[in-house]
Amino acid sequence: ARWLTLAACQTGPVQRASTRAHTVARLVALLEQAASAGAELAVFPELALTTFFPRWVLQPAEIDALYEAEMPGPVTQPLYDAARRLGIGFAIGFAERVMVDGKVRRFNSMELVGPDGQRSGRYRKMHVPGSTEPEAGTTVHLERRYFEPGDLGFPVFDYGGTRIGLALCNDRRWPETYRMLCLAGAEVVLIGYNTPQMLSEAPALAHLRMFHNHLPMQAGAYQNTLWIAAAAKAGLEDGQALIGGSCIVAPTGEIAAQALSLDDEVVVHRADLDLIAACQAVNFDFARYRRPNDYGLIVER
Ligand code: ING
């Protein structure tokens, strides 16, 4: 049997007034808890190092301080050092600022780090929701002001013999995310998210926020025979309530473990990777039963 012990490191609110160093120390403490519970691979939320700043219109001078110009940088290095010391890998969401051909580019990114503390993969969020300007009647969500859509596709990385895919927040609501990762051979998908409790544009859906968090992940895991570990940023962050519900989902579609709080909390499950083959044998023998020649509409505009 093949096993991989996964940890979803839910993170309570990261206020705008928090220093990066203080936040990194919290994340190191979560990684220590995950490792002492036997976890081999941990996931942190989307934009784990900062507040979820797309909720604001920021002045140009305020923006750069919220992005990482290098990963690891001097302030984030302790997390990479902790990974090596503890022998546990992790994925972390962060705001990425890079210079390409003399132009600044900004992505909502996630980095995979090995148990040796070395970078081993990067993903840039594909499904970037919200708008570039506040829109009347909607919750302010300016991700499209601060990030361009990812340009790295849906990569899958080797992690000690297990194939790992990455996804960020809104990506988890789209079946294409899981299908692309599945077809690239992913066995485990690590997800980070920041999801507001209240959406002013759809008060009638208010009671469904947690259902609509878990529903696509459970379906995505089942239909693509994946393990999923998903970490929320949770609780009251700069006045906005974020849902928690961090979880580990099996290829059966079952939630194997789930956070109970809206604060820093580690959710651990020893994932049986052989369940993937079992679920494929029962129904999802992709090579045998998929009808790709008849799915063309999916990639038409
Ligand atoms: N957050 C939201 C999510 O999918 C969202 C997206 C929220 C879109 C509010 C529009 C309005 O959970 C992220 N971070 O993608």
From TrEMBL:
- Kindly indicate whether the keyword Hydrolase belongs to this entry: yes
Q: Which Gene3D superfamilies match?
A: Carbon-nitrogen hydrolase (3.60.110.10)
The UniProt record lists the CN hydrolase domain at: 4-275
The record's section on SUPFAM superfamilies has: Carbon-nitrogen hydrolase
Pfam families attached to this UniProt entry = CN_hydrolase (PF00795)
Taxonomically, which superkingdom?
Bacteria
Q: Which UniProt keywords apply?
A: Hydrolase
One GO MF term on file is: hydrolase activity, acting on carbon-nitrogen (but not peptide) bonds, in linear amides
Kindly give the PANTHER family that the UniProt entry links to this protein: NITRILASE C965.09-RELATED
Protein name per its UniProtKB record = N-carbamoyl-D-amino-acid hydrolase
Tell me which species this is from. Answer: Lichenifustis flavocetrariae
